[in-house]
Amino acid sequence: MPSKNDVPFLFIVLALVLACSYVKAQHPVFETEQNNLPLRELHDRKEAIANSPSAEERGQLQQSLQTWLRQQENNAIRRSLAFHMSESSKGTSDWLWFWTNHFSVFSKKTNMQPMLANYEDTARRYSLNGSFEELLRNMVLHPAMLVYLDNLQNRKDRHNENLAREILELHTVGINGGYEQRDIQALAQALSGIVVWTQSREPNFECLPPKCRIIHQAGSVLLSRQHTGGAKLFMGKIYRNAEGLEIFEMLRDLAHHPKTIGRLAAKLIQFAIQDHPSDRQIAIVREVWQRTAGDLSHIRKSVEDLRTLESSEKRLKDPFRHLRDISHLLDQTCSPEVRMSAELMQQALERLGMGQFQRISPDGYPVHADYWLGPDTLLQRLETSQMIVRQLSQNLERDRMPLRLCTERLRLTAHSRTRKAIDVLESNPEKWLTVFLVSPEIMFH
User: Fold this and answer.
1) Do the Cβ atoms of 235 and 179 come closer than 8 Å?
2) pTM, whole model, 2 decimals?
3) From CA 368, how far away is CA 313, in angstroms rounded?
4) In this structure, are residues 414 and 441 in contact, taking their beta carbons and an 8 Å threshold?
5) pLDDT tens string 203-243
6) How far apart are CA 261 and CA 289, in angstroms?
């Protein structure tokens, strides 16, 4: 029991605790130093170039920066692919790929590269354990998306509508979602002044209200001097926020909009089950979406249940799922010497026109199978399979036994029609494996 003398002290402690809680809520710190290191290094490198005393030194620093950016890009891509190729990704790889592709970014955009790894971590976190509202907010306000769709150039004296337009057209309600040009303008105004903290150009920058508010823990901030304040009429509703944070309310309403739910339910079915979703299938996913307020774990289960219960049409796999499944198959069947690396996967995907983070346009890669079925499809897949097997063979140097054992094990799992068709190549493990990897049982769902 505290004494009377202790009471004032306890009140002071309690007041400090509450004050700290309030400050934390108002001014959250950026993510862990480890996650933010690439962004900080980018800032420091650009500062060094700007402050360099000579043109020769600036040129050297600029060259060093470009080399570092390429390393950051390759590291992020291979890290991503290594996850998808791993045993632990089974059951979640398709889901993560769908949402990362839905919120597509292009890795070649200037200064994008250091943000890619954290961007995919964000997609993984919220697509697997969050709601669509949380996923939408954290993807479109992530530094990578701000850079990709030019929101760094969106300020109150000169609005840039790129991000606002794509949020409506691609990420939520769709082109037939009932919005008008004035809605794009209102959303762009709400997004104005939201930049990456490295853009502040202030020494010893601190994000403190009212001049600055943290928007995203990966490094996005709202600079008040660049934000268009005041009430905004958007999709028939007036939004007001004294702190300039009306964007959160707008994204919340877009996430729960009936047009968003119906459109994304259809897209998920198209990706997972069949190119032409039925009204009944869409209604099932929509009902789960609305009942759970967009809980993505429940939505994923509803799509998986539909895929299990209904006989889906035979469809060509897109290059990503085809190559990933090849990687899983080799891991399960063959010795460690005969396995694909993330670097080899990266090369193969780029060869087939589906490089990770390589889609230039923000619509992402098409999810319907027909897109990938063309007159040269089989030849392209066969040539890519040949490249993969050649690389695996070179890795073995002169010892061909692991490759021969691999083909013998795979032959036991192959369909009888496949064995009958390609057993003429049995004496040549490289050729047998090359053809087997593009057989219908491997290349089709």
Assistant:
1) yes
2) 0.90
3) 12
4) yes
5) 567 889 999 999 999 999 999 999 999 999 999 999 999 89
6) 7
